Amino acid sequence: MSHHSTSQVNPAPDALFEAIAREHLFVETLQTRDWDRLDFHEVAVWGIRSALQAAYEAGQNASQRAAKPTRSPTAKPRRGRTAGPASATPVDSAAAVL
Question: How far apart (Å, rounded) are the C-alpha atoms in residues 44 and 71?
Fold first, then answer.
């Protein structure tokens, strides 16, 4: 396994990784501190499972947010042209009654 410093990681998910590590693995930081007793941790398998579950759910939530179409609150809905003769429009129907 290769060693990567967290400075090479995108900063947006880095905060999420840190939070998951603290909450589920009881690891204070993911920063390399170059001291074995600070950089290596004994973690229970249920903590690993919990951390992986949290990371998976965060990915699912991010994917769902990215998939949702965004609309500007000021955007007006588009109206398509209706099928049928032009005389079926409400304006023409009102004019025919008069």
Answer: 45
